[in-house]
Task: structure prediction
Amino acid sequence: MPLLSFCLQPSMSSFLRRCGGQLSQTDSTASLQDLQMFRVGICVFNFPLQPTLEAVLNFRYSGGAGKVEGYYREMSLGVHVDVEPSVFFTRVSTLPATSTRQCHLLLDIFNPTEHELTVSAKNSEDLVLHPSECQRMAIQVDKFDFESLPQLDQEAAHFSSPKQLEEEQQHAQGCQINSKLDICWSIISFHPSLQRHGEASVEGALNQLVLEHLQLAPLQWDVLVNGKPCDCDVVADCRVGDAVTLEVKLTNLNKNPVGPLSLTVMPYQDYQNGVQNYDLDEAVTFVGSNTFFIDVVKPRESSVCEGALLFLYTGDFYLNMKVQDDSARRELPLAWFTLPGVHVRAQDTPLQAGA
Result:
């Protein structure tokens, strides 16, 4: 239940003080008109689910000879409050990160208040917004495994419409995402009475496309070069003429088996001008085949492909790995076959002393 704080501001002719839940008038000549000039300020500490709040203020006041005799008057005042959020998310989008297990969540945040406001979030710099200003905040997040969320019981799912099931699923996904962001706001003011702080939620601002981009792909690919993981712009160093081991591990997080699959490794050089050279037959050679076959992988199990290749010249090389689904049962999304980028830097072999 939301908490309301009431503060009474007196008129210039008289004032009231609050004591023991009653309002005692200290000026015996004050009238009901004086009381009606009092202004009531209301602060909402917990944002409610409903956009409006209604309350009834009950006043008990007394003064003069009537107060001595124990007489008092009562007055009720109805209050209607429209509650609005302190920050608005006008647009939510995503951008890919260097790691296939992460992405950037982009939030366009609007400050509707009349005060300067600070917004903070996990893994992001604080954002300072002036009144009626909108800025973008980028938050790097780990992708979410929605498959691990608890499912509705069969009886509830049986009596729910497809739209209701989709809404409940999106709500559960939004709650999981929001719990990892830790978005908080605070109003900056030198006056203590104006300082406010709270939490912001993105649950209602996430559309289906954003949820798909934030979802951890059910097929997870790990690539190791010479035993070291290659992800997040990691450069693997090697020597010209030395065998470089390549290991690709597939983990199936899906509830259904996948496969058989075929994995093809194609080395290339990027000239950083839009040109990529795949004609490297004289610069790179494979020990064995550059195509690997992956049998059916059951849920929560893994499959590993191992191979090796030789770099015959120095330079920066990249490995483009393509996966093809050889199963004719169903067509899986392309996002499930996104492998980490592999960057290999081949260097000259150091000369031996006395050679």
Observations:
- The first strand starts at residue 4 and ends at 9.
- The radius of gyration is 33 Å.
